[in-house]
Amino acid sequence: MDEVIFEFLSKYIELTEEEKKILSELKFIKSFKKGSLLLREGEMSKECFFILEGCAYSYYLVDGEVKVTEFFTEKQPITPVSYTTKKPSEYYLECLEDCIVSIGSQERTAELMTKMPRLAELGPAFLEDELASQRMKYDTFIKLSPEQRYQNLQKQSPELLDRIPQYLIASYLGIKPESLSRIRKRILK
């Protein structure tokens, strides 16, 4: 599991063997069963997450209906808004599959920065990448029709279509499951 984190960080800085050893000693890896909630609406998030294995998703409950906002799979970080703002979460984070997750906290980050001050270099580059990625996703989502959103998902993340129930994909696309079925039939023709 360490290799997944090392590979992710190597996009930003080259890690020494000593730094890899420090990371291995400090990180906290935990397993979660499918259906486990990493965060509930109304809770304060004291942790951020890095998916090592499995799939999780974020969603709102609006009048009892699930509104999916994002899916997270291997090598993806999850920094809940609540973790940053120190306000109660407005959404849920749930494991869609059995997951193995590296869990971070402000205390662990402070300890890591003390032992590896070079990691501070990673912060701005990582934030820029995450912000740019989220902005591009948002812009693409807003300007595309539901059918184009589905085709974009097929192109960008085809593995998700096999891992995620269709009703959750429909929710993510902002449509009803019946509409997704019609879109899929049209595309197959």
UniProtKB/TrEMBL annotation:
Source domain of life: Bacteria
A Pfam family annotated for this UniProt entry: cNMP_binding
Record domain Cyclic nucleotide-binding: where: 11-54
Signal peptide feature range: none
Protein name per the record: Crp/Fnr family transcriptional regulator
Species in which this protein is naturally found: Flagellimonas allohymeniacidonis
Organism taxonomic ancestry: Bacteria, Pseudomonadati, Bacteroidota, Flavobacteriia, Flavobacteriales
